[in-house]
């Protein structure tokens, strides 16, 4: 009895608020905040800063969606999730979307019943090793002790890669990136393996990043992207096209600085449709006309988000590589806004 | 004697010798050292080895403390200042002090609230802990505390906890009025009254959301040692009544109720807490309708409470079993019914016997609250393992941070267990 | 007697269900049962509808799929092509291993500390009290993490042992202490080696038989045969003789610093995670066991000790023959429940990456398959089975040692 009383009292206080029926969009609007699952701390992608505010590449996607749907990029509740909890959190409705360097795989899409809204970062699994060991290829790693983050696809890729090359290794499973760092630095493992972007982010946080090399082998395809629950296609559309809007905005030269000017109307019909001065794309999704304007204004277009958080000017220093626009030889290719 | 030796005695003393001081080796410090440190060769060796180890430890640790750096912004800066000398980098504690205590998401302007709640906890706990010396009227403070603490920690309007408290008061008044007629009826009426009060009060709260309102803090923003404390205090206080009910259920003569309680208790005691936390983290959400979304801290509180109540139930069962059968029979012979017998005769004695055991469960539970760090909650251990040790500045500061964690837990747990021992002596009425 | 007739048969009234003590308990039980069924039905229907909405189902067939991940410590043969069930089994064995070794070490430390705490030596007593209080009053998770991280930070790197001119040499040429773990030599048995082992086992039985004989002789004739040295000789000598006669058929596989550029190869590598977990669980639980031991010894009344002393027994005889047999009766039940706690605490392995059941079934398998409900259900059942088994042992012991009163 006491327990139900306690629950009741807390419910009154609004602690246990929120809903996750079929129409996620309505729930988010009714709640006034977007619940977004992120990594519990991966510098550059999602990490709280010194003031306790979340920032990073994945965080910006959440903020863009919140801006598009709610008109306020700060109306996001960030829910830190581990490799173990992320899918349950999404499936059970605790979060509305998951933006946590999650690899788009067949089984996650089909068997676990999720819907990937697109790819916001094309990644691949790599190896980091101290320079002093003088290793230049992953094929020389026979017998090495390898730190891996559990609960990710990296574990399986690693097993496959070493089996395919018929070399042995000693796995040291680690729960989070944060715990892997000291082990690697103290030499408790020779190699640290995770997505190449994560390696760069980790290396950037070292005292002497130059002492560590990232090996040239990329042993897997890791298309990372935001995902939502299967079955709520309207909500899936919103997340998908918000991401596409960020990518398209870069392609058409729409930035957070000039988006207000361009939203007055331009000669480019594609830009006009994107920014809502032509057509009624927003309405079709159940949003208003200038949803994309708000999404872009939140943190800028894809290119700006990339540069702010993980680009070459940041300590993480990733180059665009595969993540350049298709016009510049990359893989980013937004379907047309039409 | 006198027969055999009388003729051989040449001298018989007829005055007492004045008392002599004991030999130097049999008195004072020397004697103490001899009998307590070097009574035989084995102990002498042990003592010397122990002294050597202590000396090593002190000599090794002293410069580490003495040279400790309290003012730096990163580990590398610490090392620069130390310039090769041995010394702790306590600057991490100075810089992350607030994060260690309150987590990284609690608004920094509101730190006074948990601090005040902590101070009030001491005030509220005193009448309960030292009830034999303090007037029982002070227990009102204890009863009020949960509501005040809730208001301070989570914020929002004061009406919310006030309505919650009012519900309990109304329920008690109703219960006290009807109790003479029938215990079960009174209980039912009390529940109805409480729910009605909460319902009406809920309307009031919705109408006046800004009365004496503190800025609201979501429970996922709680962290640091504060989170350990909240979980410990909340779960222990909730598990006590549940534990009593479970213990009574297990002693009951009604087979169905008995078996429900037995299965629950044995199941909970048979699995590690961490699996229950996994349940809270990844499974529990499936068992509630999709509309309700109970947040993680609440799910964790439910599971830890269930865990603690099973252990407390076993402790209380021990207390019930230790009571002489005569007490039960005496209660029956007075014509008391079951609730009366339990409330007036059995429980006061059984609880008294069980208090030390309950306190031990409480200490164990408080220590176990650190397990929430494994399910990515940022309690004290979670803060150290996650944000602090992972940050670029403090990567590699182990001894200082873990030493701090020990310093936070040890005094609390030690004090509680010493209290339990003291209480045991106070309650010992068998004059041994 | 004639006046005491049966009470008038009254018609049944509904109010009797609540007022009449004969029926009231049935009413309450019925209510409890209905409430229980309702709660389960509510939770079950929520589960079913939630799963249906998410398009999931409950199925254990994933256990037959290939696991795909590697495990760094396995008591049975395992590779990443084997099934999740096999991985689960590996994890379960690892749990049992650390729990078993933890119980042994905890008992040894706990008994020593418990006895020393009562020692006449003031300094030793104080040190042991400090040990007990510090370890009992700080969460075991913190101890596990401290030992793990400090081991990682303070022990030499494995690379220091490698190469032609290593910075460090193996201890006695046999053992290497690194921050990855400890490398110890493994015994390699040639066929004849098993004979040596057989001889060794047989001579242990021989030693026991000798002890029986000596005791019997002592009781029958009062002749005291020497015990210590002959028993040691019986245990060791035949095995040694066999070892050399059969041409040293047991070899040592030492950790080899030259075979690999990353790690020592050969021997038995004991991972750092295992050592940290084992050691932390042991010293934490030992603090509790020490308290139980002390309480047990204090529970033996002083009169027993004094009576034994007045019979002229020496202090160690008093301990062995009078105090301990009585104290054990008090000590063993709480110590067994400490074993239970240790086993359950071993699930904290996940904090340091030791691949026990929680880390395989409840960790990687759960993550890779997404079958949260099934995995956690199995996990709980496993621990429940262990707990019930240990409780059964405890109950059997309790009823066996119950004082046979007249």
Describe the overall structure:
Chain A: It holds the Pfam family SBP_bac_3. Chain A: Belongs to the bacterial solute-binding protein 3 family. Chain A: Keywords: Signal, Transport. Chain A: This is L-glutamine-binding protein /L-glutamate-binding protein /L-aspartate-binding protein /L-asparagine-binding protein. The complex is a heterotrimer of chains A (338), B (432) and C (406). Chain A is globular. In chain A, strand 2 and strand 3 form a beta hairpin. Chain A has two domains: 202 residues, D-Maltodextrin-Binding Protein, domain 2 (3-Layer(aba) Sandwich), CATH 3.40.190.10; 100 residues, Periplasmic binding protein-like II (D-Maltodextrin-Binding Protein, domain 2), CATH 3.40.190.10. Chain A is an alpha/beta fold and 338 residues long. Helix content of chain B is 69%, strand content 0%. In chain B, helix 10 runs antiparallel to helix 11, helix 11 crosses helix 13 and helix 13 packs across helix 15. Chain C has 406 residues and is mainly alpha-helical. Helix content of chain C is 65%, strand content 5%. Chain C contains twelve helices and five strands. Chain C has a three-stranded antiparallel β-sheet. A two-stranded antiparallel ribbon of chain C has the order 3-4. In chain C, a hairpin with a 2-residue loop joins strand 1 and strand 2. The model of chain C has no long low-confidence stretch (mean pLDDT 83). At the A-B interface, helix 1, strand 4 and helix 7 of A face helix 8, helix 9, helix 10, helix 12 and helix 13 of B.
Distance between the termini of chain C: 40 Å
Number of strands of chain A: 14
Q: Spatial order of the strands in the main sheet of chain C?
A: 1-2-5
Rg calc of chain A: 21 Å
Largest sheet of chain A: 5 strands, mixed
* H and E string of chain C: HHHHHEEEHHEEHHHHH
The number of distinct helices of chain A, counting runs of at least 4 residues, comes to 14
Which word captures the global form of chain C? globular
Low-confidence blocks of residues of chain C: none
Assembly state here? heterotrimer
Average pLDDT rating of chain C = 83
Range of helix content of chain C: 55-70%
CATH level-four homologous superfamily name of the domain at 84-185 and 254-401 in chain C: MetI-like
